[in-house]
Amino acid sequence: MSSTVACDPTEVALKSFFLGPQSENANWVTELLVEIFERWFRWRRDKFPEDGSAISSLDQASPEFCERRQQVLGLLQQLTHRFEKELPKFSPRYVGHMFSEISLPALMGHILTLLHNPNIISKESATVAADIENEAIEALGHMLGLGKAFGHFTSGGTVANFEAVVRAGARLHCWLGLGAVQGGMTLFEAAHMGWARYRQGLTMIDEHQLTPYLPERSGPWDAGRALEQAFDRPFRGPVLIVPRTGHYSWKKAARVFGVGEANLRYVDSDSQGRYQVDHLQQHLLDCQLMQQPVLAVVSVTGTTETGAVDPVHAIQDLLDRWRDQQGLHIWHHIDAAYGGFLCSLLRKDPLHKEEGLEAVLSPHVFQSLSAVGRGDSVTVDPHKLGYVPYSSGAFLARQRDDYTCVQTLAPYIDYRNVGDRGPYTLEGSRSAAGAVATWLTARSIGLHQAGYGLLMARTIRQKQKLEQWLLQKLPSARVYPGCDTNLLCFCVADAGDQVSRCNQRTLRILERLNSESLYFLSKTHFPIGSNGVTRDFIQSWQGQADTDQLVMLRLSLMNPFFDSHELDVNHIEHLVFALSELSD
Ligand SMILES: *Cc1c(COP(=O)(O)O)cnc(C)c1O
Fold it and tell me: Do the beta carbons of residue 126 and residue 412 sit within 8 Å?
């Protein structure tokens, strides 16, 4: 049944860019699919028509052929049937992890790319798609405030974060190497000398002199010993400074790239769930004192657990002071895997001057997102708040040198084309599907206030409404500090409750909601011992910490239709009602 009520212009982005929870836009999608496939068939026929056909209608009518057709059809039906047990991520009832509906333009871009199957390792193997990737990176760079950035698509945020670590490492090794050859500076000064000083120094030495100091060439053990000799002190390898709320990919990075988990330095949050810049400063001073270089400082806009946004502006201000006052350049990577698309709220659409949508952001989040473009590099996942199908992540660096300082050539690939990515990416062969899907979705919806901004604002507002309604109807709901965006993390606890009881209640609620297919939520747990925020939070309801972790319900309110007033169900009221029923 279709309603005849006209669509509010601010909801066009919502209604014309998704299939809809009941496949409302099915006819249009079918048209688009037919268009894509017909053009693909025609393209193949028109390319070399003089070659003739390889498969005749007689072949197609042969019993073997028909048997194969039947077999494929049967298996496909089996598979589609199996997939009916897949999570109903399209439904507004799915508010669990960081995925939901995918956008139609993204889906079409993805499918179109699969048909051509380009490998964007180089222009030689992707004559068209490699350019589209560059244009998509340009669009993301603009949205993030980086301007003309250097980057590429990855399989996701984890690999994009790895791309930052491997570059920050390569840069650090070059600078240390030059300092070792030149002498006259401390190890810490050398490690953070900056590209200008490095370039100038390079003119005075033979580049080969760096080799013994570069772990990429000499191996980490020999390079370490060479650095110890040159600087006449123990070399302890670099540290990676990450927020305690960081994604576990940083732990993976520390393990994979030889940093070691012991060399992760964690920055704590205050009782409001806010990153403590003073603590970062303390870590930097300790590193300087111990002459242990800083591989990178990482901040997060949109943490995986609560959607909290670190004060990127204040962190960058601090690092700018280190640079301006002491000439020390420290790499700042912003992990905006989740929150990067929120930056669309800051960009005006050239055609619509005054949306003022950024008001949906708290001043703290606004300031932080406005500073993302000041960092050295950024991770953003189109497959999260970009509503693009998997796998689509992206890594972007602001300066060319920071991007190109890793380079490995392959003898069998023609890398003469400027801008080929192969020599610079951790991954080898790469699908262009994520890049093209991002391109089409960015061009059609728009990475600004009149496009994505509308979606982002909507998801934040629906989270705010749900939170309000929850606290009003279920006063024993306790919302975790730092739920700054569209994630909501809470538990249900009476004053003085034991944490173990509260955990049992949380698990029971989750289990009941899931088993009755009412709503799909996720959960997370916070260690109590090492986490001051969690201790203060439990204190706030006089809870008794009788166990070592607190389990919380976690909702990612990304579904664009969660709060649609046309639906027959008011999900906010319905969900809170279910939660109250299950909380007794
Ligand atoms: C999801 C996420 C990642 C990892 O991204 P994948 O695409 O799952 O590899 C990294 N950092 C943050 C903050 C994330 O939310």
Answer: no
